[in-house]
Write a structure and sequence with these properties.
Layout (H helix, E strand, L loop, with lengths): L1 E8 L5 H16 L9 E6 L8 E8 L2 H12 L4 H8 L8 E6 L3
Antiparallel strand pairs: 1-3, 1-4, 2-3
Length: 104
């Protein structure tokens, strides 16, 4: 099992708009028949330490192949509406992925 974390920052005061976009994106992804039963997701924002403008969207997947399939859907435009909506809020140079293996 893997925790795939997408980190990015947004401009001050735009947290609510970004949460709305991410919730719509999550709803669209859950309709996909490709997602495994073990799939999980959570959206977190900075609170103490990290800035409230910092987001982490974590996808829990059974295998890296599952994560790659998700990324393929994003890259080929399946979620084009959502990716275009969020793009204007992501601070340039702030986004990155961290992939963690779940051991327990």
């Amino acid at each position: 099992m893997f925790a795939c974390q997408w980190h990015f920052d947004v401009p001050f005061g735009k947290q609510k708009e970004v949460v709305n976009i991410l919730e719509a994106w999550s709803k669209a992804m859950r309709k996909s028949k490709k997602l495994p039963k073990e799939y999980g997701e959570r959206i977190t924002v900075g609170h103490i330490g990290p800035s409230p403008s910092h987001f982490c969207v974590e996808h829990t997947v059974k295998s890296l192949a599952d994560w790659e399939a998700m990324m393929h859907d994003v890259a080929t435009g399946k979620y084009k509406k959502q990716s275009q909506a969020i793009a204007k809020y992501i601070v340039a140079g702030s986004q990155h992925w961290e992939i963690l293996r779940v051991v327990k």
